[in-house]
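Appendix C: a fully annotated inverse folding record. The material below is reproduced so that readers can follow the format used throughout the book. The structure is listed first as tokens, followed by the designed sequence.
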């Protein structure tokens, strides 16, 4: 791993030009995203809607992302939310285009796919001064290859459990072909129809097997490993992967909110997704700064309405009970990336963090943000 990273680092350091990409993902936990920054206004608007069900949170949850965009000035921004109920929310169609427009960005793609366990939504934006480099001729070819507007949606059904994915493809005349794929793999073993009264270990193994099958299907349909002239040069795969942290392989025991250790690194060996990344279809993907994976608290299973002390907490330990539920815990929300095999381009993750605030605390998931430098020799 270290030798592999060292060779990648040499490749990156010898490339002068850099293009930046920002990715944000959040499982909203079944709440609706309002298209206003004012929570009182949002609540009032929702009382007027006879078909609206459940809670909603104001768009202030997006403030940390706006701050990072202003700071880092990425050329491309990908934003995905998962598990939002079927509602008339216009966050992706109204709020985001307006907010990103004020930051100097233009909407390129917007897509959603909806299932019984909620929807996956993804929006892609380009910085205005980079828009001229999104070439029309190649974009037309991408549209023919990947579908209308260079976008695809997919569902994977095992039993009655349905996972979803969205692929969006962007061609930059200097940096090549970017593939962004947002996924949502719901929780729960009962919908797999594998029988009742399973031991925790067997139930978890069934969930991991179903995760893998759906990841293979989503990967193949979205053509993330496609060959040919328009194969992706850079792939970003992100969303809710439905993997937990396991601490007892013999028993299938899971890390819960009631643990006492304060070292996040102690749980890395039990990270189910890290193990899955050793096999297809995730083999070859990288994650985090220097490929170290998540170096932040687990993103699931947080208390809904948790106190503000949980938002910036870096360690785990005696206060975990105030931030986490007592059930399973995991880094379910992730951003993976795959860089080219050639020596002409490389991806360097410069920031990988969880995001939490008053609005995000309405969900039992925290959000994740990733910043990346694309380096290329011309």
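Designed amino acids, in order:
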């Amino acid at each position: 791993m270290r030798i592999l990273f060292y060779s990648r680092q040499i490749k990156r350091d010898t490339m002068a030009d850099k293009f930046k990409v920002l990715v944000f993902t959040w499982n909203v936990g079944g709440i609706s995203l309002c298209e206003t920054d004012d929570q009182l206004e949002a609540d009032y608007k929702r009382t007027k809607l006879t078909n609206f069900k459940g809670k909603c949170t104001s768009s202030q949850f997006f403030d940390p992302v706006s701050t990072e965009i202003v700071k880092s000035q990425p050329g491309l921004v990908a934003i995905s939310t998962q598990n939002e109920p079927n509602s008339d929310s216009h966050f992706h169609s109204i709020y985001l285009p307006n907010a990103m427009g004020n930051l100097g960005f233009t909407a390129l793609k917007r897509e959603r796919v909806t299932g019984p366990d909620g929807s996956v939504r993804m929006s892609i934006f380009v910085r205005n001064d980079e828009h001229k480099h999104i070439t029309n001729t190649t974009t037309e070819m991408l549209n023919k290859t990947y579908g209308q507007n260079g976008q695809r949606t997919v569902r994977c059904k095992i039993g009655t459990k349905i996972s979803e994915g969205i692929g969006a493809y962007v061609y930059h005349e200097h940096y090549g072909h970017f593939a962004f794929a947002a996924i949502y793999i719901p929780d729960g073993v009962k919908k797999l129809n594998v029988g009742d009264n399973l031991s925790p270990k067997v139930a978890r193994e069934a969930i991991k097997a179903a995760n893998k099958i759906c990841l293979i299907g989503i990967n193949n349909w979205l053509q993330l490993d496609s060959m040919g002239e328009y194969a992706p040069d850079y792939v970003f795969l992100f969303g809710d992967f439905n993997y937990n942290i396991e601490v007892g392989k013999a028993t299938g025991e899971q890390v819960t909110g009631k643990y006492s250790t304060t070292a996040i690194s102690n749980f890395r060996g039990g990270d189910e997704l890290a193990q899955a990344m050793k096999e297809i279809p995730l083999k070859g993907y990288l994650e985090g700064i220097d490929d170290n994976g998540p170096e932040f608290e687990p993103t699931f299973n947080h208390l809904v309405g948790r106190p503000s002390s949980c938002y910036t907490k870096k360690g785990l330990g005696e206060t975990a009970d105030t931030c986490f539920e007592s059930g399973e815990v995991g880094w379910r929300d992730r951003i993976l990336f795959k860089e080219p095999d050639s020596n002409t381009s490389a991806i360097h993750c410069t920031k990988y963090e969880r995001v939490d605030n008053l609005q995000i605390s309405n969900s039992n998931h925290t959000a994740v943000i990733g910043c990346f430098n694309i380096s290329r020799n011309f």
